[in-house]
Design a protein that fits this description.
single chain; mainly beta; 3 helices; globular; DUF3108 domain-containing protein
Length: about 350
């Protein structure tokens, strides 16, 4: 009788997931992770050719500033600079009262109305996307007592097709799997579909699906909202930020804000992170410095998970630590467990 009751509860619970629970996520892109990624000094980005001087209502970007001082024994972080916002999905705002906020989505000086689709495709190919990468983490935290587990973040790509897979497991408590599936564009990742599966003891598997359908986004709760330029999902945001800092390393500067539209299973809104001063981390892959990205108030609803990540310039701007906080009831701390593994170039 107890088994029958649990079965009925599970069926009713799963029936509330909506149409997105009926079909399975896309098949996994087949990748072999064969080589370890060691920390190395990030390349210095070449400065673009300055445009012809002209009067503008926008203030000119500030002169480049060096990164914060670090102890002599720590690996160098390299120079950074504060620059005006570049085109793309991620907005950066410098939080200095004397510096006016740059206009959102301002075209780059090299762009023009005469640019052809072929030139846009060439721009996408010009950026050397990192090979498929797997990051493994140890998980510790608390949920009605101490908990431990493991997590993985996988970036898989095949030509212009990408997948980001995030798996977080806590022994005897919960496992969550997140999959973003989409395409690579000159503006970074363009999700087509997001699937979120949650395994809970005695409840089975809950699946929620978000679909990005042209001009609209179909949320997992059945609602449809207009799409937004550069919108990301809960899994793709990790790689989108890595892409952004790989292509704009000077933007990883304490005091700045990074914002982009984020589509969650039940709502879509602008998400804001603040770049904090770099912190030293002692990891299995070695000692390195990483910049925390902290979610700002107003981004989260009371029942949503607050995600903070630490970006390491010497490891291709990958997130080497991720924390997840849910109200005052649960906290998970994911710390990189060894060197990231990558596919052959």
């Amino acid at each position: 009788m107890v088994v029958l009751h649990l079965w009925v509860v599970q069926r009713v619970w799963q029936s509330r997931l909506g149409a997105g629970a009926a079909d399975k996520p896309p098949a996994t892109i087949d990748v072999a992770f064969v080589q370890a990624l060691a920390p190395m000094q990030p390349p210095v980005a070449a400065a673009p050719a300055p445009p012809r001087p002209r009067r503008s209502a926008l203030a000119a970007p500030r002169r480049a500033a060096s990164s914060p001082e670090v102890p002599a024994s720590a690996p160098e972080l390299g120079a950074s600079s504060v620059a005006a916002e570049a085109p793309g999905a991620v907005d950066v705002v410098q939080r200095e009262p004397e510096m006016p906020a740059p206009e959102v989505n301002e075209p780059a000086p090299a762009a023009s109305a005469a640019a052809s689709p072929a030139s846009a495709a060439s721009a996408a190919l010009a950026f050397d996307w990192p090979p498929s990468t797997r990051l493994s983490y140890t998980v510790s935290g608390s949920y009605r007592g101490p908990v431990e587990g493991a997590a993985k973040v996988e970036w898989r790509r095949q030509d212009s097709h990408y997948q980001v897979r995030v798996t977080v497991g806590v022994a005897a408590v919960v496992e969550r799997r997140m999959l973003s599936d989409g395409e690579l564009t000159p503006e970074g990742l363009k999700p087509h579909r997001y699937d979120q599966e949650t395994d809970i003891p005695l409840r089975g598997t809950q699946r929620e699906t978000v679909r990005f359908e042209g001009d609209t986004i179909a949320l997992a709760n059945g609602k449809t909202v207009p799409t937004m330029p550069g919108v990301q999902d809960a899994a793709s945001q990790f790689v989108q930020l890595t892409w952004y800092f790989l292509t704009h390393p000077e933007r990883l500067q304490p005091g700045q804000e990074v914002s982009f539209p984020l589509a969650l299973p039940r709502r879509a809104a602008s998400w804001r992170y603040q770049v904090l001063p770099p912190e030293p981390l002692a990891l299995k892959v070695g000692a390195l410095w990483a910049y925390p990205l902290k979610p700002l108030p107003g981004s989260l609803k009371p029942n949503e998970v607050a995600v903070q990540m630490w970006i390491a310039p010497t490891l291709q701007y990958l997130p080497v630590r991720i924390t997840m906080n849910w109200r005052d009831e649960a906290m998970l701390d994911m710390v990189l467990d060894g060197a990231p593994l990558q596919a052959a170039h």
